[in-house]
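Q: My labmate handed me this sequence with no annotations at all. I'd like to see what the chain might look like in three dimensions before we decide whether it's worth expressing. Could you predict it?
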Amino acid sequence: MRKLLLSLTLILGTLGGVVLATRAQNQVPTGDLNSTLNVGGVNCSFKIHIPPSYNGTKPVPLVLTLHGRSGNGDIVARYTGMSAKSDQEGFIVAYPNALGSPSAWNSGYNTGRNNGDDVAFLRTLIDRLQKDFNIDTQRIYVTGHSSGAMMSYRLGAELSDRIAAIAPVAGSIGAKLPGGQTVTIPDPKSPVSVVAVHGQQDPTVPYNGSQGRRENFLPVAQSVNFWVKENGCNPTPQRTNLNGNKVIQETYGGCQGNTNVSLYTVVNGNHSWPGAQTKRGKENADLAATDVIWDFFERHPRAGTNLTASASTSTAMSTVAAPVELEPMTAAPTAPTTGNRRDNFTQAMQQLDLTPSQQQQMRALYQRNRGNMKTPQVRAEAQRILSPSQLAQAKQLLAQRGDSSSLAGASSPVVTATPAAVGTSRDGFQISYQAGTRDEAGKFMGGTELRLLTAHKGKVYAGIETWMDRPGNDPAIGAQILVLDSSTGRWRLDHEFTEPLPRATRRGNKRNEGVTVLQSVTFTTDAQGRKLDQPVSVLFAACRDFLGVTSVYSRDDRTGRWVEMRLDARQGKATVRSLTLHQDRVTKVDRVFVGTRPVGIFSGVYDPNRPGNIRWDEKPEIDANEGRPMAFAEANGSLYMIKEPAVFRRIDGAQPRWEKVYSYPPNRSGSSGLRGLTAIPNPKGQGESLLAAMEGKNSYIVRIDPADNHKATQELNVTQFAAQKLGKRVPYAIVANNTMTPVAGGNLLISLQIHPTDGGDASYLVRQSNGNYQLQRVLDPRTNPRVGLTTTRTMVVSPFPEDRGQVVFLGGFDADDKPTHNAAWVVRASVDAVLGRRGTS
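A: Here is what I predict for the chain of 841 residues:
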């Protein structure tokens, strides 16, 4: 076996004449160092300060500090005191020098005589420092004064994928030029935290903007509002008066990715750095800007990063980019084992359809334990690496070779599934997503359950649940939204809800545990009922919120960001469970409706001038009381809604109301009652009827006929039907978790969750156009013989043109109150396969 080599030799280089030593010498350079970079043929100089605590063994933050016009790195280091702060807090600070005479940063609108590419310079500087030092890539910050503040604004926008937060002091995002042109920074691609500091009496970059100058800088409020909008923050700040009303702090919360926007206004402050030590004494002494800035930086790693997790992130393994050489591992054990057993194990692993990562982990497990795979610890580790179906197949293959003991009885308190190669089975099913993978950008995608699939603007989006997650060595994630760009492509992370709880609960440490709503709707009217020039499609999401905040999120497809819209806040848990669009038949206004608990039904209209593009009513149209509003459906032009223990119909108009049209006995088993409200053609005549499914020990599907005074007819006793088809008792069933999905030929796909869950049972129902029902199963194409996946929860017809409506994506898993990890799944299948026309059972 070839060895795994780790070179401990450190790079030997020079930085301003200082030789970087090896770890053996234990002489990591500290203090001030000067150096240059050649960027595009131009020599650019900089100084760095390394705190005495730095030894290269753990990643540290990096702060770029940019000087003002006519200044340099030495000057800004002296009056900000940033090096002293570096020594106290343990971060590395860099002081780059701008070009030009007088020196000024090329922010695009306050350039002096500098026409150089300062973005390229500073990006290259970050790359260089990451190579030479152990930099925490989630904690790269930029601050600057005056011209440097304007450059920090630009860097925050153009390097939003690298920079966690910026702190502009006495700067602006743009200016009006003499020709009337307004030049501003570009829109960032990712949220960036911002803390701006500005003196209200600043004569150089006036607080309220300037006029009649060569560069008329935009007001502070415009600079702040730019970032409030880009970060999707609540536009109403929390205001606090500090230091005897000499400083006003405004904080904008609710921003995307745990970011924040704050403004410190020094009421009597001028253009100087607040708290700067100069020959005249302290300038703007009412605020210590350096302390405020570092305190803000320390609390704001890069968007979507945990405060606790980011400290372990590093691109280097040692003091200065220690090179790591990895050579491939073979399957040979490190110690002699019984030949037959080794061969059995190797051949069994080769027959399994494992990813390279799984193969390497299983080989390492075998070698580490010298071929002894009998112990409970080893079996538990194997269960972590392999999916339940893969483990079952492995045991079967070993048993066929007369080795039934190696993985016999393998079990674990944590149900785990691992990524598997995509492949299509003879049954027409193909694994599209398995939790526990990383997308092409390296972002981790997990999930104990996949609750929702929806189509939006030609793509498929998925909502991830983390209930009962036990991540082990994987990242502890919050609720996630994934996106698929092509039918057979790779999924990628679109958004993660990362905001932590103030205190962890038994459920976890994230505010948002799982996505509970994910739906695209298309508006055709504005708030007054006027027809829009072009229909506007909006993708909405919502989560189970353990801060008690009832929020809906909308996706800005232009930037890819999700904007939070808060409807209500109170103690406890809040859940948005349903969402739909309905045009009021009286006012002719398109309205979006959300069903929330504990508050009720909220409604809103399309308004592009509001955050998230929706103007919500201040009060709910109907209270939730004890029941969850589980589903909406539109039938015969009327909007219906389920809220236990009844079905309601909305009476449209300027003063709308909801009337109860059908009641059912409250379910005594703790269920949510009816679910999955869906409109179907009336089998008895014209118009539409409604289907809904009862959850519980006696589960059934009921048809409600509005044309017959909302008379209810039971179409199927699901409990009895499933028990007969599966050949086992069905103690409890949840049918149509969300809605029923129409597919070609007038068929409906209906999800089915059987409790307690049984590994290998991903059953679902098909309602045929004639009203008859079938039971089908999703089979795992990675196993041979075929083994079913676990719990089908959601379906969507493919929106990709090449599929022509003949492909369906199905997703699921149910943690069922058991510790679980990386179990969420999505399969892709033809409509024929899903309808049981090609070999499904």
